[in-house]
Amino acid sequence: MFSGNKKHWETVYETKNPDQVSWTQQVPKTSIEFIQSFGLDKSARIIDIGGGDSNLVDFLIELGYENITVLDISAKALEKAKSRLGEKAKKVNWIVSDVTEFLPEAAFDIWHDRAAFHFLTTRAQIEQYVSIARQSVSGYLAIGTFSENGPKKCSGLDISQYNEAALTAEFQNGFEKLQCITEDHITPFNTIQNFLFCSYRKT
Q: Which of the following CATH numbers is that of domain 3-14+28-202: 3.90.1150.10, 3.40.640.10, 3.40.50.150, 2.60.40.10?
């Protein structure tokens, strides 16, 4: 998500409930499996890029992870997540920022992004994101985007589709690929969106 779309995302989270947006997952199974696959201990510094009011943070807290940051361009999205978590929200570092303008103060062991990167549609945005990730990640990346069999738009916005080779090419300077999978996400409206998930290790 980038600054030109801040108003768009604030409106989305102001006006829609989780069952009214396509990206909602009750259980973010693939994200959890990728994060656990890195084999890091529960003190690992994890950031969820474009986390919004995703349930991933709930599951990470339940699993005992102690150092979680959630970043989103929408303050309203993070307010919703905090409200849902109640007292547990105090265990999380919340950051309202456009990811392409993010200036982290320390490195992250795990950078997780499900469905934010594919909203970057210009070379400048993509290169800025990759540059920030390269500077900010000391361990692993887990990225989920729409595949070539996925939607061409989301929430009324154009997106960038990826296959394994194209996504890996974006991160080739600084990261080595570990694994890639595709999966069908069933939306709350019972439509299917095909996702590509890849994990990378910082080199």
A: 3.40.50.150
Under 8 Å between Cβ of 17 and 166: no
Q: Quick check: pTM over 0.70? A: yes
Report the alpha-carbon distance of residue 108 to residue 69 in Å, rounded: 9
Domain positions in the chain: 3-14+28-202
Please give the share of the chain, as a percent, with pLDDT higher than 90.
Answer: 70
Instruction: Write out the two tokens for 114.
Output: 């499900």
Are 162 and 177 spatial neighbours (Cβ–Cβ below 8 Å)?
Answer: no
d(CA 77, CA 54) in angstroms, rounded, equals 9
Structure token pair of residue 195: 């996702």
| Angle between helix 6-15 and helix 75-85 axes, rounded to 10 deg | 40
Four-CA torsion 160, 163, 169, 170, nearest 10 degrees: 30
Phi, psi of 150, deg, nearest 5: -95, -175
DSSP 68: E
The structure tokens listed for 128 are: 């800025």
13-49 pLDDT, tens per residue?
566 665 554 445 678 899 999 999 999 999 999 999 9
Question: Region 102-110: what's the mean pLDDT?
Answer: 94
pLDDT band at residue 155 under the 50/70/90 scheme: low
